[in-house]
Amino acid sequence: MSATHIVPKKIYFAVFAALMVFTAITVAVSFVDLGPLNTVVALGIAITKATLVVLYFMHVKYSPRLTKLVVLSSLFWLVILLVMTMGDYVTRDWRTYGMNQPHSAPYGIERTIAETVNL
Amino acid sequence: MPEAVLHEHHHPPALAHHFENLEEQHTAATLGMWVFLVTEVLFFGGLFMAYTLYRHWYPAAFMASSHELDITLGATNTAVLIVSSLTMALAVHAAQEGERGKIMFFLVVTMILGLAFLGIKSVEYMDKFEHHHVPGASFHFDDPALQQPAQIFFSLYFVMTGLHALHMIVGLGLMTWMFIWTKNGTITKDYSSPIEISGLYWHFVDIVWIFLFPLLYLLGRHI
Predict the structure, then answer these.
(1) Are residues A58 and A100 in the same domain?
(2) Selection from B148, B41, B131 nearest residue A82 by Cα
(3) Are residues A3 and A45 in the same domain?
(4) Is the model's pLDDT at A118 over the cut of 60?
(5) Are residues A26 and A79 in the same domain?
(6) Which domain holds residue A22?
(7) Please, are residues A117 and A110 in contact by the beta-carbon 8 Å criterion?
């Protein structure tokens, strides 16, 4: 009796090939100027690659629901960390009071406050 | 007599007393490892948070600094880690099939790839020292206007890749431990969980690099 679901080897090879192809794509795309989309594409590919690793190499696709819940909880906390902290910092310079106070960024922000407000 | 009664029930030698069956034991081990990995996600998450904020503040300095990193070595290391994740997955597969020789073979290949990654990383670090791209008194950046924020990029570069490299070293220790346990017969077809949860750790470290590579090396490559 086996206690675990055994993932067929050909799935591992297919995931490996996909990871290599995505790596080649992300390197190639980085040389093309897409403006802000460069970051979106790079992160999109990274998230896709990470998802493949989690689902197949780390067997989460075949794991019980409790394990899946714990895996998703890491994303939940990470999103709170990133979104709430950035939500604070980004909006600090939107204030209309105390404009003579120094910026939150130690060496000054590269864009002006007027630009930030008009974003 | 009572002791004899106590041990009258039969269970596989790999099964601890407090679990009903091997499947329950395996699920508990996996779940415990995942709970640890959630804390690891947040551990690295703090650094990704710092990266996001400073990049938001200093987009030009981050792009210019990123351009100084060696994309060839970075991409090579990405490939090395992906291959090592494959060999790790194959080691887990061999463990589930109870094939000792194959487990040891794939663990050794995984360790060699991990060492190759660290070797390439140290070449990159040496290069940073030679080009005065290590934050501190001797830091020098070509564009004097970006001197200070560029140091922030390189501080994050060293802390994030350094913490990642530390995890690789811990991973190599884990693989050595698993190699010994496979060799001395502790790992069996019924007791493959140690290999599997060590594999989870190794794949997690790979995932961290999957995000570090584009964020540090590919940003601003097109300028």
Answers:
(1) no
(2) B41
(3) yes
(4) no
(5) no
(6) 1-63
(7) no
Q: What is the pLDDT of residue A2?
A: 45
- B203/A45 CB distance under 8 A: no
End-of-domain residue from the set A42, A63, A84: A63
Among B31, B82, B218, select the one facing A26 at the smallest CB separation. Answer: B218
Q: Would you give the DSSP letter of residue B144?
A: G
Residue B112 pLDDT > 70? yes
Q: Which of A63, A87, A106 is the last residue of a domain?
A: A63
Residue B19, pLDDT score: 86
Nearest to B43 by CA among B198, B173, B159, B194: B159
Q: How many CB pairs under 8 A join A and B?
A: 155
Of B78, B83, B206, the CB nearest to A53: B206
For residue A101, the distance in angstroms to the closest alpha carbon of chain B comes to 17
> What beta strand segments (E) does A1-119 contain?
none
Q: In the predicted model, what is the mean pLDDT of residues B189-202? A: 94
Q: Do A4 and B96 touch (CB under 8 A)?
A: yes
Residues of chain A neighbouring B51 (CB-CB closer than 8 A): none
Each domain of chain B, given as residue ranges in start order, spans 22-218
Q: Predicted confidence band at A91 (pLDDT cuts at 50, 70, 90)?
A: confident
Residue B137 has pLDDT above 50, yes or no: yes
Q: Are residues A104 and A118 in the same domain?
A: yes
- ipTM value of the model? 0.90
Count the domains in chain A.
2
Q: Over range B80-93, report the average pLDDT.
A: 97
Taking CA A90 as the corner, what is the angle to CA A85 and CA A92, rounded to the nearest 5 degrees? 100
Structural fold of domain B22-218: Four Helix Bundle (Hemerythrin (Met), subunit A) (1.20.120)
| pLDDT score, position B32 | 95
Provide mean pLDDT across the span A75-98.
Answer: 85
The per-residue b/e assignment along B66-83, b for 16 or more CB within 10 angstroms, e otherwise, is: bebbebeebbebbebbbb
Considering only CB atoms, which chain A residues are within 8 Å of B31?
A: 66-67, 70
| Helices B193-212 & A37-52 angle (0-180, nearest 10) | 170
